[in-house]
Amino acid sequence: MSFQLSIMIEALKTASHYIGTTLFMALTALVIGAVVGLIIALIRLYRIKILAPVLQVIVTVLKGVPVVLVILALYLISAKQFDIWAESMHWTLRFKDFNMVWIAIAALSLMSAINSSEIFRGAFAAVKKGQFDAAKSIGMTNVQVIRRVLLPQAWPISLPMFSNLLISLVKASALASMVSVVDVFAAAKITAQQNYRFLEAYVAVAIIYWLISLVIEKGAQLLENRMLRKLRRAAL
Amino acid sequence: MMKVTDIHKRFGKQEVLKGIDLDVAKGEVVVLLGPSGSGKTTFLRCLNFLERADQGVIQLGETTTTLHKASKKEILTHQRQTAMVFQNYALFQNKTAKENIMMPLIVTKKQSKEAALRTAEALLDQVGLSERQDFYPSQLSGGQQQRIGIARALALNPKVILFDEPTSALDPELVGQTLALLREIAEAGATMVLVTHEMKFAYEVADKVVFMENGHIVEQGTPQQVFEETKEERTKAFLARFTTQLAG
């Protein structure tokens, strides 16, 4: 079987229509994950009773679970249980009305939240203790310390790691095809199933993911360069 | 102005402060001396709630605060009436010199930006750093950073300013400049509590010198009493190097 460039380009064209779906899943998961991850990291930083140790265990457990299992588990649980819950709550929404994209986003958000919380935890640790002392010594409340001192200093430190996380999420979103979401990967696979040209389709998919990653990385670099001066300040 | 009674603080099993009492009158400059590990810095941090003391009472102006029972609100009120200058300056790294001084005014005193800016400019002028107002801490020398730190403390217009070894991290030349600034502030009537190893400064500027060791106050009095008419052997030994200079 020879490699046919024209078929690969055809697959590339078809698959590229679904870049939007792939990016939508990855970006939504990034945003949800960053917000949840920030809350987790803050709870752990301020050692809030009960919640902090519980979250620590949850983070440790979930860090070790493959995303594909999370997607499948969420799918199975909601397929079996959602209608029962919905009925008992007198909702009219049913499982079949769901867009499966949201199952994928939920699973990716979980992965993203766990990773973000660790990114923030590292960035918080890089903020010197004296900064907190100084803030408290002038009578700032915890919220003021977080908003005016902690986050502005932690954000530039965490930026490169968030760009990596987004790339991971884009690639992990290919797993959404497991629950019948049509994204870049699934679209290419569908074309291949029609003409049995799997190699061409997979190469096309690889090129698309690679290009998306490249754009994300360059984008993050631009942002980083803009913040470089600030970054240096925060690191000192 | 400030009366501190029976402060105790332990870290784990080690008792670092074993009942410290101190009276600071308005406009008075109190210098805490003592060997490393004697609890001077911990004492200072307790006075500003950077450490929570296990026991003790602070009377500041009209308000009395029980250290180990203070509510969040009491702590904030207390912190807004005191200010601290740190050994490592602890300027906000993400803010310029000017913004560092404006921060307490805007955030905790709820002043308008314009009012805060005017105060900050006046203070920058006072510490001689007007032309550096837009520099970030990492672009300033240690001595300049400490002067900004002092200006930030002054901005709060606090009842008491606490200084934790303000010159220990500076090179000898900058120490002179910074001490000169401290002397100016003292002469302008600020109430100050300083932890320092600058004996000459303590001797010349302090109204009261307190010698601490092992979590206790060993001896206190005017600089003349402590340096020249020393009562305790331990104080004599600690001050020996300086007092021989004085005599010679």
Task: Give a verbal description of the structure.
The complex is a heterodimer of chains A (236) and B (248). Chain A has helices at 5-16, 19-45, 51-63, 67-88, 101-126, 129-137, 142-172, 184-195, 198-235. Chain A has 236 residues and is mostly helical. Chain A folds into 2 domains: 1-18 and 182-236; 21-176, MetI-like (MetI-like fold, Orthogonal Bundle). The N and C termini of chain A lie far apart (58 Å). The model of chain A has no long low-confidence stretch (mean pLDDT 91). Helices cover 40% and strands 25% of the residues of chain B. Chain B contains 9 helices and 10 strands. Chain B has helices spanning 40-47, 72-79, 97-108, 113-126, 142-155, 172-187, 199-205, 223-228, 233-247, and strands spanning 2-11, 14-24, 29-33, 55-60, 63-66, 82-85, 160-164, 192-195, 208-213, 216-221. In chain B, the strands form 2 sheets. A 6-stranded mixed β-sheet of chain B has the order 6-7-8-3-9-10, sandwiched between helices. A 4-stranded antiparallel β-sheet of chain B has the order 2-1-4-5, with helices on one face. Chain A binds chain B through residues 128, 130-131, 133-141, 144, 148-149, 152-153, 230, 232-234, 236, and chain B through 48-50, 76-80, 82-84, 86, 88-94, 103-104, 107-108, 136-138, 152, 156.
